[in-house]
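Lab notebook, bench 4. The sequencing result for the construct came back, and we need a structural model before the next group meeting so we can plan mutations. Quick request posted to the team channel:

Model the 3D structure of this chain.
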Amino acid sequence: MISKILVPTDGSKTSRKAAAYAVDLAGRLGASLIVVTVIDKRLFLGQTIPASKTPKNMEETVEDYLRGVADGYLGDIRKLCARRGVELKTVTRVGYPVEEILEEARKSRAHLIVMGSRGRSALSATVLGSVSYGVLHNDKNIPILIVRE
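Done. Here's the predicted structure in token form:
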């Protein structure tokens, strides 16, 4: 029985579509939802964002800025869950997306991963490092549902 669904999201159109699908599925199954965002640590190395570019008009680290952005797109998912009566847990992790998604799935004991994919070819996914491709091919224990763009 599926009672915990994990949904990785990065705020993209495809991940928002996957999240909406997961909320609907969780509502129908009476399952809870775990939404994970991963701040890719390859994107920053102690860099800061100038005050003029931040919502608070204060200089902040790239990691703090990205956490704020992630909180923004998690708000839409929170609203969907509230409307459907779906229990929600949100997690923000820092690291390499594939590794962090799989670690959170194991840690939270998810029964299903629902994630979006833009539908690139296997070759371009390998060369460009598609997250959905990486999750799909690095975990053999948790079923994965891919929602296409």
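The chain has one domain: 4-148.
Will bring this to the meeting.
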